[in-house]
Structures are given as structure tokens and as C-alpha cells.
Design goal:
248 residues, alpha/beta, 6-stranded mixed beta sheet, 4-stranded antiparallel beta sheet, globular, binds adenosine-5'-diphosphate, binds magnesium ion
Length: 248
């Protein structure tokens, strides 16, 4: 079953076409990566899907419903979570408190100053579960500021997991991470898909980061889809290799 589909999705900035007629098809339960050289239009596509930008043309279909133009703040309620380059991580709160607050903000108590003890317990449970999924259980009591970079990215993902999104959108989650940390991090993401049954759409410019973990890969260049397929097909695709020449 398709969980997400874009139909001829298009975005102009003035007269410049950053995304031109993209048809993306994401199967439920897969880790689907969108790759391409810098400037290919990946982040713009991501922003169109997550409601941060309104498309100039085309449609976004989620679970069979047309959600085109739904604003960002309504996406969580639809079941779509997205990572931000700058997340609302409070550096002077613990890891657990950060995720618990996110759970509370997404829950029914967000408008109440004091949630009752029963619902606090529920939010702590949700937060603990999300932290377990990203492998941060041992660091729940740490101040967020004290986490190494890779663990901060995991914390951001845990914050996105509360509220139980069915689709998780991640834009270059491994950016800025030391190369030797990337496989373990990508493994964690892959585990989230398997254990929690999530669909993950991941944007990444570096092909080697996603090659071993993706079920499907869509390659973009110049705002258009250049190729789509299983990792092995993409690796051996000549047009893809050419697009990447000089862009590494
Ligand atoms: P990628 O994420 O693949 O590196 P982007 O989606 O960020 O690519 O950008 C695609 C193209 O659109 C680039 O040429 C970029 O300069 C341009 N672009 C992105 N955002 C804007 C904007 N807000 N206004 C004008 N041009 C933009
Ligand atoms: Mg980008």
C-alpha cells in the first residue's frame, strides 16, 4: 500500500523551478531515501510534503487523502512527523524531560498549565518508549546540552516519535556527524522502521549513507526525478553516476 504519493509536485521561487513535476511513491513500512547532489531540490520537496512550503502546482496524497497545502502545525495530527534542522531541544532540561514535554504538547493537556498526575505518567511512558526506540535509555537523565552530537540527533528523532506518527520525514539526519558514527545511527533509524512499524522518508545528499539501509531510493537532479529503484539498481545507474560526478 502507498502511504505517501506526490503527483506532479512543483515549486517555483520566482521564475526558478526548484521542484518540477515530481511523482514520488512511498510504500508503507519502507525506508525510502531521496538522494541527489546539492541543489537538486530535495529539501524543497521535503518542505512541500511537510507543509512548510505551499506547492505552485501538483498534489500531496497521504494515506489516500489529498493533504496539499495543509500547514505544518496540522501535520502531526495527520500522522506525519518531521525533523527540523533546529529542533526545540531545551539544553538545560534532561533528555527525558525534553521528550516528555513534547509528548505533553502533542497530547490533550497542552492548553492546561498543570496536567494531572495520571496523564503525566502517560507522557513519561510515551517518552520512555520513544527514547528506548532511539537507543537513549541509558542517557535519559543527562542534560540535553551534555549529549554528543549523534545523540542529539537521536533525541530529535525521539521528540518526533511521540504522538506516534505513521510517517517520519528526516532531512539529512546524519549531517554533521562523524563518518564513523553514521552506520550505527543509520542502523538505529532502520530499527525504528522495523520495530515500531514506521514509514521513513529520508533526504540525503551522500549516496553512501543510505545505500545499505534503504528499501527504495529516488534520485533527484535539477528539481526532477532522475531515477527510482532498489539500491543496487541505483548504484549501477549511469545517469545517476553522471549526476553525482563533481558533486561529491
Ligand atoms: P537540496 O536540498 O537538494 O540541496 P534545495 O531544495 O535546498 O536543494 O534547493 C533547490 C534549489 O532551489 C537550489 O538552487 C536553491 O538555491 C533553490 N532554493 C531553495 N530554497 C529557495 C528559496 N526559498 N528561494 C529561492 N531559491 C531557493
Ligand atoms: Mg537540502
Amino acid at each position: 500500500m502507498l502511504i505517501l504519493e506526490t503527483r506532479a509536485l512543483t515549486k517555483y521561487f520566482g521564475s526558478f523551478c526548484a521542484v518540477g513535476g515530481v511523482d514520488l511513491r512511498v510504500e508503507e513500512g519502507t525506508l525510502h531515501s531521496v538522494i541527489g547532489p546539492n541543489g537538486a531540490g530535495k529539501t524543497t520537496l521535503f518542505n512541500l510534503i511537510s507543509g512548510y512550503l505551499r506547492p505552485s502546482d501538483g498534489a500531496v496524497i497521504f494515506e489516500g487523502k489529498d493533504i496539499t497545502g495543509t500547514p505544518l502545525h496540522k501535520m502531526a495530527h495527520l500522522g506525519i512527523g518531521r525533523s527540523f534542522q533546529i529542533t526545540n531541544v531545551f539544553p538545560n532540561l534532561t533528555v527525558l524531560e525534553n521528550v516528555r514535554l513534547a509528548a505533553q504538547a502533542k497530547g490533550a493537556d497542552s492548553l492546561r498549565f498543570l496536567a494531572d498526575a495520571g496523564s503525566i505518567k502517560k507522557y513519561i511512558e510515551q517518552a520512555t518508549h520513544a527514547l528506548e526506540l532511539v537507543g537513549l535509555t541509558a542517557r535519559m537523565g543527562w542534560l540535553a546540552a551534555a549529549l554528543p552530537h549523534g545523540d542529539k540527533r537521536k533525541l530529535e528523532i525521539a521528540i518526533n516519535l511521540v504522538g506516534d506518527p505513521r510517517l517520519l520525514l528526516l532531512d539529512e539526519p546524519a549531517a554533521g556527524m562523524a563518518t564513523e558514527q553514521v552506520p550505527e545511527f543509520m542502523n538505529t533509524i532502520s530499527e525504528i522502521r522495523k520495530r515500531a512499524g514506521k514509514t521513513i522518508l529520508l533526504v540525503e545528499h551522500n549516496m553512501s549513507v543510505v545505500m545499505n539501509y534503504s528499501d527504495r531510493i529516488t534520485v533527484m537532479a535539477g528539481g526532477k526525478v532522475l531515477a527510482e529503484g532498489a539500491p543496487a539498481e541505483i548504484k549501477s545507474n549511469e545517469a545517476v553516476q553522471n549526476a553525482y560526478l563533481g558533486h561529491r
